Amino acid sequence: MKKVILLLILLLPIFVAVSCGGKDANSGDKKKIVYWSMWNEVEPQGQVIKQAIADFMEKNPDVKVEINWNGRDIRKTLQPALDNKQKIDLWDEDLERTTVSWGKYGLNLDEYVEASYDTTEGKPYQDFVMRSLIEVSKSYSKDGSIYSIPYQPFMFTVMYNKDHFAKAGITKNPETWAEFLDACAKLKNAGYIPMTVDDAYVQVLLGYQLAKYKGSDWVKKLVLEGLWDDPVVLKAVQDWQKMYELGYISPNVAGNKFPQGQQEIANGEVSMYLNGTWLVNEIMPSTGPDFPWGQFLYPTVEGGTDTIYDTSYGSQGFQVNKNTKYPNEVFALIIHLTTGEWDKKLAQNTFGAPVASTTDWPVQLSDAKDLFPKLEKVYPFAAGIEYNKDKIPTIVANFIRVISGQLTSEDFIVEMKK
To answer: Which CATH number fits the domain 2-153+314-369, given the four candidates 3.30.420.10, 2.60.40.10, 3.40.190.10, 3.40.50.300?
Structure first.
């Protein structure tokens, strides 16, 4: 019965209860929702969300939404504000962070995602948006419930220049390490530098190579327990040392400081760069909208445990305060932002992935559209290699030396054991 009542409330044309005449029964004022945003107002995401909220208030005249543009400082400011009982009804940040770090402040949203709404074509909300991300969100919680609603999905893929691949005669995206090496050979023969990286993402290359051999949980164990003598570590490093020896890596990697690696892609100097799908938007000022973007998932390795569909993927997340006076209205706002017109506009204006299943995708991410439904295990960032924060600088410095020809794989192991 509770679910039926909830559904009836949320399916009203203006999405909010009318029994109070559109007013706050206690004060006679409009129902005020306070939203703390992870975006800055001038960012593309901020601009779309601002317009979407204005549209929501026009369609729901008894609701007022106040936006606090925190930017990334929300990671520092939100929890103290919540602990001090400041009125905040809704906030957003990384999907994992909202659930793991702030889940105790969040409302259990299971009943909301199990219901259907005007913009979900008769389907439960959780079946209309990317179900894989709903499950990821639940996996972050201690009780298997959902406390954060995904939006702005991303995944880690090899971002590449389709024109380079076509001119090199590559007709199929590589799925195995052997196929990847073959593609690199063809790119080099066609006059292109196959691969680049910079100091912000170099550890991701090693993390993924290790994870494809033994899984991301083992990568975490490696860095936490110092299992550097495991033969798989040497093998993974040797794989990338060979990439250098074959001339498949940009000669600039030794000195590449973020964002120099991605600028090599933007300038057409290099063909591939392992990064998140957010890269399209991030370097749009350099590439323009007509850059021939392609995406494929990091390849498997011989004898490895993990598939190509195991990768880092996730999204931002909307979280509702468990103490809000207006949970139905707040979730109606989330529906407004994550389905229909505004989900589409957010994807188009940020050249990102939409979260709703029927929304058009930006042409720049057409390959990623086909990959998202196939994703399997979710890796942490860099496939777990960053779980020992103290080791990250050493890993970065020494792996850069390997892929720039300054250090052998064997000496890498020696350095990591110091």
So the answer is: 3.40.190.10
